[in-house]
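The freezer alarm interrupted the setup, so I double-checked each line after restarting. Inputs confirmed:
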Amino acid sequence: MNNRQWDEKKFRQVSRRELLKLAPLLALGAFAVPKWQEGLLKKGLGFSDWASGKMFRSGHMATTFENSELTSFSKFPINGYDVEDPGVIFEQWTLTVSGAVQRPGEYTLAQVQALPRYRQNTRHVCVEGWDVIGRFGGARLADFLRLIGADPAAKFITVNCADDYYESLDMETALHPQTLLCYEMYEQPLTREHGAPLRLTIPTKVGYKQAKYLTDLKVTHVLDRVGYWEDQGYSWFYGL
Amino acid sequence: MRGEVIEIVRVEPKPRVEVREDAAEAKPKADLAEDAEVQAETEVHTEDTAAAEAKEVVEEEIRGDDVAASEVEVEDVPVVVARATYEHPFIVRLCHWINLVALFVMVASGLQIFRAFPSFGAKIPQKDLLHWPKAYALGGWLGGGLQWHLTFMWIYIGTGLLYLGYQIFGGNYRQVLFVPRDIPGVWPMVKHYFFFGPKPPAREAYNPLQKQAYTMAIVLGALSVLTGFAVWKPIQFSWLAWMMGGFHYARIWHFCIMWAILFFVLGHLVMVVLHGWNNFVSMLTGWKKDPDY
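Predicted 3D structure, all chains:
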């Protein structure tokens, strides 16, 4: 074999040069700098949200299930961030609609219930990792947005809740046929712990996006408040 | 450059000749000691008998009277002290080390996420599988764990794709990919490692068992991404989730594949320790000194 010959000095030089070429690796050290860490992770999460938005297909339905596959109602977890019952007085309850809509004002539960009712058995996925299959019934948010004359060019929906929880949604998800203003579960009126009188059911989103005890709904071009958990550091889009 | 073999040579230094010239002058003791050291080192590195003989010839020449002639001889007959092969192309090394960091972050943040619901059963009633200590998790809380996980997954996927693309289109996959003709060589390697059997002769950079392990690791890496997408996007990638038995099972697969990868890493580390410094350095510089083949 006619091998090339290098003296030891050249071998050391080449080895050193090859080692130095790995220097870009040190850039990852930026994540270890306390001052930069939060900002970098926020950017990373933002990139994931952007990618999530691109992956979302408005015509793609979440899997639906047979009644036999449902999690029993008693085993459907109740998750609230504050109280299980914020004490909504049903007789006085209205949904306050504002923002980029033609018909702002107070809407009653009867007006929501007058819209076509859809019932669906869909999977509810919690950010923690558990999942249950529930039966949800209500009006399509898309139908309600038509009822209030929402500006089709608006980008977001924000909601406020009786327990001071707040959330926001991208318009594409809001218009998804499986996104419901939910007023019944398992064909029974929504119970207080599950968000009576009105909550969001969004099978294409993770659990914390599906706000309960709705009191206000705003259609907007610019988000002023994103969401309670998002403000703690969770993902905003979190589409499934 | 990949697969290139070189010989590392030591050319007998000229100063030896010069020392002879001014031998009359008193030579400091330190210098003498250094000289002896150099000579001893040379002898240690000279494994090739032919090279050793050549060196003796050279030394005899130096002792001769014609200084100028011996100088020429010294430069013409270099002593081979080692061989080296270029085993790991730059992209492979870069991906290897970035992926190592990304994998570490993915595992530690993944376990942080798992801590939020350490079970694969129902939420009600909840039966915890294990309580992973917070000290060995990254992110501090579920949201923090998710931030790390959803950031580094892009780095993990990015280096994975760059690596795969390079291996496939650069042709380097032949060094790693376990193919049917490697099968007969697996058992002798297993016997060597686990039952103290004789060491089968090495013919290429990786032995059959090594190829099998690395190919498996690459497959596991791909599966970790696919199961991850089934957990993260069970609706947009409903076909993936379906293949794994739905969201619920995808989460179990994702978890199991993490342990399989960690098991590989453990074996990999043991082998790195067993195979010594030159082998380890080759993953940093690309060049492996004194290869077995």
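Quick read of the result. Residues 34-55 of chain A form the longest helix (22 residues).
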